[in-house]
Amino acid sequence: MKHGRGFRSLSQKGPAAHFWLSLLCFSGLVIASFLLFEQQIQGLLAQLNLYLPSTPTQTFNVALLLIALLALDVVLPVPSSMVALLAVAMLGSLGGYLVIFIGLCLGAGLGYALGAGYFRLLAGRLGLHQRQPGQLGYRLGTLSLICLRGIPVLAETSVVAAGMQRYPLPAFLLVTTLANAGLALAYSAIGSFLVEQNALLVTLLASMVLPGLFLAGYSLVKSLRKHDAEQSLHGRFKVHYDYPVVFTDHLFDPLNPCLHRQLTHGQRRPVTVLVFADEQLLNSASQLPGQIEAYFAAHAADLHLKTAPIAVPAGELSKDAQVLQRLYADMLQQGLDRHCHVLALGGGAVLDAVGYACATFHRGIRLIRVPSTVLAQNDAGIGVKNGINAFGQKNLLGAFYPATAVINDFQLLTSLTRRDQIAGLAEAVKVALIKDAVFFQWMERNADALARFDHSASRYAIHRCAELHLAHITGAGDPFERGNGRPLDYGHWAAHKLENLSRHRLRHGEAVAVGMALDGLYANALGLLSDADTVRVLALLLKLGFCLNPPELFLKDAQGRSQVLLGLEEFRQHLGGQLSIPLLNRIGESLDVHEIDNAQMELALQRLSSHAAPVLGLNESYQ
To answer: Span 245-416: which CATH code?
Structure first.
């Protein structure tokens, strides 16, 4: 019982106790062996002294032999620590260092190649590749790769394991090269000191003790990491999203299967649906409510419409806390649960507000978006962001919540005013400027048709813009915007401020057009964007019908500061503290800047003031 208690008390002393116990036991064994066989070892060292190289050729041959021994240590039982210290004793500190470093690097490379090639193939044939990573041993990390470089057997095993686990080759070469440089320096320094003291016996002893030190040190680090890990829990899982963006015409024609297909996908029982629709859309398309009810009546076997479409205030008025509360009340009154669907019809603002309600009601209710504006169909409606305005800040409250599906019905755009049709094209210009120079050139060639909202040209522009936006959201690696870089926000820092300054008299697309022109002139002032490309950007925006100098652009506060430029600080806070503004360095390509030169931006504002509103029948909209 006493022995058991003693063992348990020792095991509870923590990582430091294990470290010193391991070092004491290992060192004791080595010292004991030297005490027993001191005379034999001294004789061996005396014979070795006779073979020290005396000519450059002998020195070169000895160096090659020692390098080969260190490199082949991965496949042969070579005492690498002993070889390393002997290299210093025979070739001096510099020569020994180079031999050790080169040999260790070659050995690491050979081990990685064997692991990535032969051993990985062997593991595949044995079926080991089908096992979980933990079943193939510990998952190799960078710290392990560094710490194990000085430990016999484990050093070779670690580089082979790195190859088998496809540890990134550039990172492997960098980590092992730096670790080998440090290890070679340690061997060289210790070996040089011992040789100067004429202590070849101690040198040999050190070559056997050093691996023990490395092993004990690694055990200490590993124990400390394990101890830290035991103090915390980690949760990790992935959520998979897959939603279609569908383009169609006459969505609520009973013969059009598009909506029925999306609502019933994966369902084994009738689907309950509640429809929220943009109030302005319902007013401009008075036949729409009847079409919706007739559609659901025609599919009554599979679809159940809870009530007639519920109107939601149009535009930014919908992104209000009181509107959000009414949405919650409507969903609660209609008895919606997490298996029901909400169908949201409207512009980007309405989709944002309804989407936020769906994201938070019952912690998430199924949502199908039906964008009814150009801007919503090519940008806002296909993303994963939802939210409302609060405390005077745009999109202050919100959630990332992808829709179940997005359905773009081009016919919903035909009832829009000319101003709204053109405003939505700003996002197409934006995504072309930052992503696709060829698309920008196409827009230049078709600017007249786009300004007339020619159906063929407009369809293509909307589809291509949506395609580029979706590709960025799904392929850029940051769909929930946890980082600071947001190229899709090009022109938006000024746009958000202009919308607030105009009290949303300016459409979002109109404000974005001004923001893009301002940032283009600023990039030109910095020398990032050429004069020719700057002229092309401004010319296209003007030709499409955008006013680039609305009065809000030149408002000053009581201290004489530009109110638009104050939007930079608001945008910094929106991003989480670090400013990140995308700027063009050529058409089709952007880069992020983290500081703004206020003097140059003021100059860009003055240059923009000289660009008058185009004479395209839109000027009265800005009065």
So the answer is: 3.40.50.1970
Residue ranges of the chain assigned to CATH 3.40.50.1970: 245-416
**Interatomic CA distance for residues 451 and 391, integer angstroms:** 36
Helices 437-445 + 455-475 axis angle, to 10: 170
CA dihedral in degrees (595, 598, 599, 604; nearest 10)?
Answer: 100
Residue 241 confidence (pLDDT): 84
Looking at residue 1, its pLDDT comes to: 44
How far apart are alpha carbons 115 and 108 in whole angstroms?
Answer: 11
Assigned token pair, 483: 């980082």
Residue the block writes with tokens 């950007």: 537
Q: What is the pLDDT of residue 336?
A: 95
What's the DSSP call for residue 21? H
Q: What is the pLDDT of residue 302?
A: 93
pLDDT at 30: 44
Q: Are strands 303-305 and 271-278 parallel, antiparallel or unpaired?
A: parallel
Q: Mark the ranges of the chain whose per-residue pLDDT is less than 50.
A: 1-12, 15-16, 18-20, 22-23, 26-27, 29-31, 33-38, 40-42, 44-50, 125-139, 613-623
Q: Residue 288, Cβ neighbours under 10 Å: how many?
A: 20
DSSP per residue over 433-485, as a string? Answer: HHH-HHHHHHHHHTHHHHHTT-HHHHHHHHHHHHHHHHHHHHHSS-TT--SS-
| Pairing verdict, β 341-346 and 310-312 | unpaired
What Rg value do the Cα atoms of the chain yield, rounded?
Answer: 35
The residues, ordered by sequence, that sit 6+ positions from 246 with a Cβ below 8 Å of its Cβ are 258, 262, 405, 406, 407, 408
270 touches 299 (CB < 8 A) = no
Query: Among the CATH numbers 1.20.1090.10, 3.40.50.620, 3.30.160.20, 1.10.760.10, which is that of 450-622?
Result: 1.20.1090.10
The pLDDT value recorded for residue 90 is 80
